[in-house]
Amino acid sequence: MNIHGLTAAAGTMDSVSRRPAGFVSRRSFLIGAGASFAAVSLAGCVTGGMSLAEAQRVYGPLPNEKFPVPAVAIQKVDPKYYRRTVRYETKEAPGTIIIDPKNFYVYRVEEGGMATRYGANVGRDGFRWNGDVIVGRKGEWATWTPPKEMIARQPEAAKYAKGMPGGLGNPLGARTLYLYQDGVYTLYTIYATIHPESIGKGVTSGCTGLLTQDMIDLYDKTPVGTKVVMLPS
């Protein structure tokens, strides 16, 4: 594995594949949060901002989802984290996802030196990492299974040891991109959150969360095999 900044710990991962020794769990975020709450050069020039009225439309309710998603309380989101089209200089190919944990952004590289930029939450201190991975699989309203390390830290998670079914209270939310390296699931994901107050903060155990409406937009554009670059924080 060549992901950097990981703390060694023993443990196992889910049934998809065996986790290599020394790979610490970085699954989503604390169970309580789920219930409650390649070098690049960044130009950062905003070319397509979003008005309040447009934000209310883009982040409106999703009644046709398997589990209807409420509108985002956009007053809880700094407007700089609304979805935007920005100029973005990179050698990465269009379609590549680049996560900038320092600034709480996720970029999807587009043609012509542009990118779609989403506000995000990221790993809290001590749970950040960097490196290149790929989207190994995708899931809609996926089952979430806490790893043994999390259960050891938080015994209240033990009731979900056999999996928490999909739903609004599930930490993975409506859509999930599972991140793999060298054919092995890293236990990191890009996932959907219904907690707007988490955007722009370090709250997870190494995963990256987008507002559900943004995550669905990214998910629909992202095939399995897509490269994902996690920048250093």
TrEMBL record:
Residues 95-231 form the L,D-TPase catalytic domain. The keyword Hydrolase applies. The lineage of its organism: Bacteria, Pseudomonadati, Pseudomonadota, Alphaproteobacteria, Hyphomicrobiales. Belongs to the YkuD family. Pathway: Cell wall biogenesis; peptidoglycan biosynthesis. This is Lipoprotein-anchoring transpeptidase ErfK/SrfK. GO terms for molecular function: glycosyltransferase activity; peptidoglycan L,D-transpeptidase activity. It comes from Kaistia soli DSM 19436. One of its GO terms (cellular component) is extracellular region. Keywords: Cell shape, Cell wall biogenesis/degradation, Glycosyltransferase, Hydrolase, Lipoprotein, Peptidoglycan synthesis, Transferase. It holds the Pfam family YkuD. One of its GO terms (biological process) is peptidoglycan-protein cross-linking. InterPro entries: LD-transpeptidase, LD_TPept_cat_dom, TAT_signal, Transpep_catalytic_dom.
